[in-house]
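Private note to self, pasted from the team thread so I don't lose it. Backbone tokens:
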């Protein structure tokens, strides 16, 4: 078998791999119990908090 004869199989496996990856990401985002987390993250730009002063970087 050479690469030319394997190309259709590899092309099909590539599509299946990306579909499974997309399905996993969709499941991970839509799973129960993450609503509060995403709501908290979504409100970060709207908070009226003063920015924290930066700590000086120390090298040890």
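Design output:
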């Amino acid at each position: 078998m050479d690469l030319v004869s394997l190309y259709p199989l590899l092309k099909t496996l590539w599509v299946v791999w990306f579909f499974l990856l997309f399905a996993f990401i969709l499941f991970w985002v839509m799973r129960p119990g993450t609503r509060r987390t995403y709501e908290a993250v979504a409100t970060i730009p709207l908070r009226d908090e003063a920015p924290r002063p930066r700590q000086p970087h120390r090298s040890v």
